[in-house]
């Protein structure tokens, strides 16, 4: 078995008396797409905040590429190759699509304390940014204002920005949130393709997408992981059916 | 400190009322607008002597000096999203650098300017590093407090005039030559500083550094998620702006041949904010226009009534209500075509 790229051990987070993350442990292997599913309020977004470093953990460890990153900030984790996208689209609306990606390339390409040369004309940054945009099929939109993109295109740009950071592991927080049928088909195809080159942790509500994409699935209910396994194992797991799929069928 | 938190150093965040990037004033338009303003100012002295009103040059010098200060505040306020309410302290420190050195017989403008820049940069570094630990209204309050500390320090510094201020025995010299003795040379020197500052800040805001600063203003969490720490960028901008405001102070001391703690009062800081907002935050050329409009209005309204500030207040309320992006925003809408 290959070394886990991301190893989470007994991770905890409480808000007051509420245990939002309650002893979560799981591994993400290199080059797998590991989906985390769970009903609303299960603590999925809190977990991704803890993995990305946006939120401090109360206890437990997060190891990335063998090193303990539990105490590192989001900035330090990104620099080590652990990048995230946001559930609620978080892009720079006032900048061009290209600059959104080029900014992420700039963050890892030499000092940003350079004061004279126009950054938008730096070919090295723009070339890498274009490559990231091409992977999400947004290269034809490169010179548009990011704010003018459609919702689905903004979701694609989120992923391109994460790619442009040079990430080894992508934490995708509900990339399909708010997308229509066609938009989500584009994004699912895109993730299918990204699986070839990147390890992905996918948090997603869309079960069809999860079962189509995931190598393994973990099920989070009230801050605890109740099952981890292949999509088939999880689908037939009695606890999962009781806690989650049953609920969905009832709804 | 605080590793692993989502703390961001966005401070005194302001609603983004700057004109959309990509409009006429964002690209060549702003350079053109600035060139027009500089050209109009450059032909002012001959016109003033032709119509026999040499005092016009004195007024214009004052305007140019405050335009430099407003320009520097725009870097902090319009690009860095930091609402600094103590910016006049830097202007005052720069002015005092001239007066204090001059009182000890050091009249060379280069030495004075270096001292002003050094003192202001140091003051900005220390106060900025502390202020940037706070956000929102607290950032406004703490910069106000530091500004007032500088003000009261000068009030109590009786060796250099205290509350009464200090009169310069003569204007600064350059290598022993009294090159700034005349009002017209001082005006052109000030205009040159303004033009260079504009070009410098324009390059800076388009550079790698400026791009991070602009991105941080728009979405600090996104910037952290791609690996930037906003603090260092905002602090650097704060220091650069402080040093440039100090340079404005050097010119102000020479223009008035007098310095006093009043230069550093919080009312002065407020006026600088008004100039930036009136002209259009985050446009560079806007605050230059804002300084011109503010000081001309001040003179003009004072002709009608001693209660001119009331009139100015009404005008400001109307401007804030009915224009987005100040003067620059208005010009933008007049001449700019909406782009797709």
From TrEMBL, chain A:
One Gene Ontology cellular component term attached to this UniProt record is: plasma membrane
User: Which SMART domains does its entry note?
Assistant: AAA (SM00382)
The family database entries (CDD domains) matched by this protein are listed as:
ABC_Mj1267_LivG_branched
Q: Which Pfam families match?
A: ABC_tran, BCA_ABC_TP_C
GO function term, MF aspect, one: ATP binding
Which stretches make up the ABC transporter domain? 6-247
Keywords of the record, alphabetical order, are: ATP-binding, Nucleotide-binding, Transport
Entry keyword Transport: yes
**What protein is this chain from?**
ABC transporter ATP-binding protein
What is the organism of origin for this protein? Jiella avicenniae
From TrEMBL, chain B:
One molecular function GO term is: branched-chain amino acid transmembrane transporter activity
What UniProt keywords apply to this chain's record, in alphabetical order? Cell membrane, Membrane, Transmembrane, Transmembrane helix
* Cited InterPro entries: ABC_transp_permease (IPR001851), LivM-like (IPR043428)
Keyword Transmembrane listed? The answer is yes
TM annotation in the entry? 29-48, 54-77, 84-103, 109-130, 137-160, 180-201, 231-252, 272-297, 309-331
**CDD domains under this entry?**
TM_PBP1_LivM_like (cd06581)
Task: Mention any one GO cellular component term assigned to this protein in its UniProt record.
Answer: plasma membrane
Subcellular localization: Cell membrane
Q: How does it sit in the membrane?
A: Multi-pass membrane protein
Identify this protein by name: Branched-chain amino acid ABC transporter permease
Origin species, per record, is Jiella avicenniae
